[in-house]
Specification:
CATH topology of the largest domain in chain B: Rossmann fold
Strand order of the largest sheet of chain B: 4-3-7-1-2-6-5
Strand order of the largest sheet of chain A: 3-4-7-8-9-10-15-16
Bound molecules: flavin-adenine dinucleotide, flavin mononucleotide, FE2/S2 (inorganic) cluster
Number of strands of chain B: 16
Order of helices and strands of chain B: EEEEEEHEEHEHEEHEHEEEE
Keywords (chains A, C): Cytoplasm, Flavoprotein, FMN, Oxidoreductase, Pyrimidine biosynthesis
Main location (chains A, C): cytoplasm
CATH topology of chain A: TIM Barrel
Strand content of chain B: 25-35%
Largest interface: A-C, 47 and 47 residues
Number of strands of chain A: 16
CATH architecture of chain A: Alpha-Beta Barrel
Helix content of chain A: 25-40%
Oligomer: heterotetramer
Structural class of chain B: alpha/beta
Number of domains of chain A: 1
CATH superfamily of the largest domain in chain B: Nucleotide-binding domain of ferredoxin-NADP reductase (FNR) module
Largest sheet of chain B: 7 strands, antiparallel
Radius of gyration of chain B: 17 Å
Shape of chain B: globular
Function (chains A, C): Catalyzes the conversion of dihydroorotate to orotate.
CATH architecture of the largest domain in chain B: 3-Layer(aba) Sandwich
Strand content of chain A: 15-25%
Shape of chain A: globular
Pathway (chains A, C): Pyrimidine metabolism; UMP biosynthesis via de novo pathway
GO biological process, one term (chains A, C): 'de novo' pyrimidine nucleobase biosynthetic process
CATH class of the largest domain in chain B: Alpha Beta
Radius of gyration of chain A: 18 Å
Number of domains of chain B: 2
Largest sheet of chain A: 8 strands, parallel, barrel
């Protein structure tokens, strides 16, 4: 049992486990100090960061839905400078790779962010392309291959770090988007970001969320996320970080079997702040029961 | 104010009963952790038993005793309705204590509560060891059924308002506040209740140049300052109600129009 | 209270209420004879029908997921001839409009089906375009506007009945698809069909479903469905039949507020076979509480 | 065979207890409807209480008495684990009776059951008013804990097999069936159990030219014949296990290899 290893490497980043945290759901890690064991985490993916500080959306920002939640935080963040100058020195002590999730409103902003974050304290950047492309009529970068590819190229050109592209599930053909990402030079693929959804208050006749629509996450989306991981696994050879509704080790194992090289835990952090530790223990136990010693023994092993 | 490490406990329900005719319940939970030092105004994130409800529900700590905490809640929707069915002896997961509590530095405190906002004032009153006065308001006499006995021996003077005048003074708490402030020498007011009430009280105390703290409510996912569901704008910049609050200086916050 | 009216008309079909049943979830109506009250139903949409009888997919056909279910029935049905000759005479007695959901593997098949179903017993056809277009590499008709438009045109040319297009949610831009449907001459829009998903058995390392992937339905998808109804409402003026996770009157009201002219109940029929009656009663009650008398008073009234 | 209209009832749990060491539970429910005429082999769709579980769960009617039905189930996954927590006195929604039952026309019936497949044979045995024999198989003596007492007075002869020989004959039921058939003059065999067992029994009875009925299991959503989750191919074309079954003539079905 003591030989079981969850250690892994993803896009050149050495990780103590294939369990990461999903952007926007784990703050900067500090908020979970009392519950998480950073030595069991593969990486902390911090909140979506932009060039300028952003105050996010007004009004109600979350709504609970059946087995899920909607959010329209609106990328509230202190801006990349504060991250680099104040936050990153503080969270260095966790000795855990830090991946910065970045969002721009133009292609150039992604390049600039990647460049600014090409620093020791940062292990990789993850491109959030679910945000509106202001120059192109506000359509999200991530639902159209061309704009997504320019964003990836802009980031790659400006950093020595691995560039992870986080795919939006709100597309017709996720495999095609993944192939485009591979062609554009991405080093790894995260999926899925949230599904676009909505909730309505039948007493006030108004949308529950201040921003009208929001991103659906949590167990409700797991079947869609798994299907997408599996489709992308068949389409590209890049490493995949699977996420979407992972609430326990069983869910994580489903993603590994479907082909995810690592997983990220999102909404579950809100429900059980120590969930990443529990998933770590659960994976060890599962491998032990199956007489396996290495997490890689199950990755992509779905017989379909 | 003491800062606590957070705990996450499978609490055991010791007592759980309807204490108010208007669907108000009291939940007494053993969290197997010393709760005595929890600050009045702090809250917990309670996981609704049975698994259907995804997100935790924020509830104020209304009282503490040894390793036990008391929560008082009203049935609002799915979560609280489901919670109300939890049996004595069953388990309920509690994350806490969250947020910052009320600032106790003052000599003559007045607590002002409306509806379920009265709940956290119970622990606050106890922290003031009987030296606080309370002004509480409800719709009618019937709704005073639960706070009256709870506050009986923990405050000095009790002022009561009901919207319909069926008990105490007729009208809203805030209408009677100026007179109460004029006739007493309070140096700090603590308010918890509907937003409109807190807003009005904040205005009045500002006029009287009396310190005032308010306890805000916002939808929360994490309760830990991570998800940014609960951000508000304040005069000191953006703050998180779950972590920087829920208690704020009344002069610090902007009440929505 | 007695003046409250749920009666409505959709694409020229007179309906006793705006509550329909979703294709594939209510059989041919007969299965629910003990529970449904056909005088409270707007229409029965029968199981997806094809030219030839189909035996459907092998292996496990359903899987439960958080607040949802996956299905890969695979369009099992007795074929259009049996429907016309045997089933339709049997279900005439319900005095409830019958809408036939049809699927083809070529554009021509849709035309042929529409033509054969241009009979008295049928109130309308609903085109299921979530099935693979065998001539075009097996991509579903409904994820690409051109093939969807040819299907609509083929149906319209071959029938005097209203043609309802049922949109697939597995697309980047549902509003664009709706506009294309309107342009092609559809008389009404149903949405949403199921979201593509997957479930994995971590003991056997195999997909749970015989067909590997399946369609996700139930409460889990409601936020996505509502968002799509709202987006489509803004994009086109065709009547909309909203569906996806409707489990009670509250859910139905959310769809009406978002702009649905009628709703269809699917998965909920499996959980509570008398759910359509309960929703009918719930709608009446809601209108009464709001001092409204006509269901049309709430349709599209979302203040956003 | 009598055909019933379906009922949908909020049943009241009268008795609910673990009756087998191997996580087998007995659930006795008042459905407020006369259940006496339900056929052995029919089943109900039970809604797991508490709302987290979406789909109903199919469970065989193991016994009836007045307006009460008995279900016997084993913990398998989420649904049955959640069900096991339902308290006596609480409600559980029941849809039934579903499917067609066993055909009772015969003189010397032999019931063959394995594992939880033994459950529906209880009502069947009662329908034969003590005239049936039963051959039941489990892994070991421990797992015979619940069926033994239940069948004590409702069958004529009881044959027992255990895989490990810790009780009765060692081996699978099907291994011992030829001898039992040879030594008795059964005119019909009723089987419910694991697919491999039913398949083997079907083969043996066919060899002996004895009529045989099997009870199949398939994942179900509606239970009413509407969703086509449970279709199987038979020699008579496609059939729905929920409506045309779960009981079929053994010669009619194809067992998967
Ligand atoms: C810091 C804090 C302390 C609180 N203390 C108490 C207390 O001591 N007693 C009490 O009765 N109530 C208290 N509330 C309000 C309580 O959290 C809500 O009544 C409860 O969450 C309603 O849940 P529900 O599922 O019944 O309602 P639903 O309306 O079904 O809940 C839907 C969602 O909205 C959220 N929500 C609904 N109302 C509120 C609200 N007023 N504030 C924040 N989120 C809300 C829920 O948490 C949930 O995520 C407090 C809220 C906060 C933020
Ligand atoms: C007609 C019929 C009668 C049955 N009678 C009994 C009985 O009397 N006693 C008993 O213990 N069991 C019986 N079963 C099996 C019982 O339905 C399953 O054990 C139960 O559904 C498992 O639910 P779960 O949530 O615990 O398991 P999970 O594996 O978590 O269930 C996941 C899904 O798979 C389905 N499923 C899992 N196992 C089976 C199975 N064997 N057959 C059909 N669906 C399954 C569930 O219904 C659910 O939809 C019967 C099944 C059928 C079809
Ligand atoms: C409150 C919240 C905030 C989020 N913020 C971001 C973000 O800033 N950038 C991003 O790429 N994804 C963000 N996400 C998406 C998550 O990282 C993740 O992709 C998604 O929630 C699916 O995983 P889950 O179901 O485990 O939560 C956010 C999700 C939630 C719930
Ligand atoms: C078991 C099952 C079978 C279905 N069969 C069909 C079908 O034949 N044709 C079709 O257009 N939609 C079919 N659907 C989709 C439903 O009609 C509906 O669009 C979808 O389930 C969303 O609604 P719901 O969440 O209320 O179930 C099927 C759904 C289920 C669950
Ligand atoms: S609730 Fe998550 S930051 Fe406040
Ligand atoms: S379970 Fe729906 S048809 Fe059998």
């Amino acid at each position: 049992m003591s030989e079981i290893s969850l250690k892994t490497e993803l896009a050149g980043i050495k990780m103590n486990s294939p369990i990461m945290t999903a952007s926007g759901t784990f703050g900067f890690g500090e908020e979970f100090e009392d519950f998480a064991d950073f030595s069991t985490l593969g990486a902390i993916v911090v909140k979506g960061t932009t060039l300028q500080p952003r105050s996010g959306n007004k009004g109600i920002r979350i709504a609970e839905t059946p087995a899920g939640m909607l959010n329209c935080i609106g990328l509230e963040n202190p801006g990349v400078k504060v991250f680099i100058d104040e936050i990153s020195p503080r969270i260095k002590k966790y000795n855990c790779p830090i991946i910065v999730n970045i969002s721009g409103s133009t292609v150039e902003e992604y390049g600039e962010l990647a460049n600014m974050l090409d620093i020791d304290a940062v292990a990789a950047v993850e491109l959030n392309v679910s945000c509106p492309n202001v120059k192109e009529g506000g359509i999200a970068f991530g639902v159209e291959p061309k704009s997504m590819m320019s964003v990836i190229r802009a980031a790659k050109k400006n950093t020595h770090k691995p560039v992870i592209i986080k795919l939006s599930p709100n597309v017709t053909d996720i495999a095609m988007m993944a192939k485009a990402a591979e062609e554009a030079g991405a080093d790894a693929i995260s999926l899925i970001n949230t599904l676009m959804g909505m909730a309505i208050d039948i007493n006030t006749w108004r949308p529950v969320l201040g921003n009208i629509t929001g991103g659906l996450s949590g167990p409700a989306v797991k079947p869609v996320a798994l299907r997408m991981v599996w489709e992308v696994r068949k389409a590209v050879s890049l490493p995949i970080i699977g996420m979407g509704g992972i609430m326990n080790a069983q869910d994580a194992i489903e993603f590994f079997l479907a082909g995810a090289d690592a997983v990220a835990v999102g909404t579950a952090n809100f429900v059980e702040p120590d969930i990443t530790v529990k998933i770590y223990d659960g994976l060890e136990k599962y491998l032990g029961q199956k007489n396996l010693t290495d997490i890689k023994d199950i990755i992509g092993k779905l017989q379909a | 104010m003491i800062l606590h490490k957070h705990f996450l406990a499978d609490g055991a329900i010791i007592r759980h009963e309807k204490i108010g005719a208007n669907d108000v319940y009291l939940l007494d939970i053993d969290i197997f952790t010393n709760a005595e030092s929890f600050a009045a105004g702090q809250f917990v994130q309670l996981q609704v038993p049975d698994g259907e409800i995804l997100l935790r529900r924020p509830l104020s700590i209304a009282d503490v005793s040894g390793s036990r905490i008391v929560l008082i809640y009203r049935l609002i929707g799915k979560g609280t309705e489901r919670l109300a069915r939890a049996a004595v002896g069953s388990k309920v997961s509690i994350l806490g204590p969250l947020g910052t509590g009320f600032g106790l530095e003052c000599k003559r405190p007045l607590l002002v509560g409306g509806g379920l906002g009265i709940a956290p004032l119970l622990l606050l009153a106890k922290r003031f060891a009987g030296q606080a006065d309370i002004l509480m308001g409800c719709k009618n006499a019937a709704q005073m059924d639960w706070p009256l006995p709870l506050f009986k021996n923990v405050v000095k003077n009790t002022f009561i308002t009901t919207d319909d005048g069926s008990m105490g003074m007729r009208g809203f708490t805030a209408e009677h506040l100026p007179k109460i402030l004029a006739e007493n020498s309070y140096d700090k007011v603590f308010v918890c209740g509907p937003e409109i009430m807190m807003k009005t009280v904040a205005k009045i105390t500002a006029g009287h140049k009396i310190a005032c703290e308010v306890s805000l409510e916002k939808r929360m996912a994490c309760g830990l300052g991570a998800c940014l569901s609960c951000t508000i704008e304040t005069r000191q910049g953006r703050k998180k109600v779950c972590k920087d609050g829920p208690v704020f200086n009344s002069t610090e916050v902007f009440f929505d129009e």
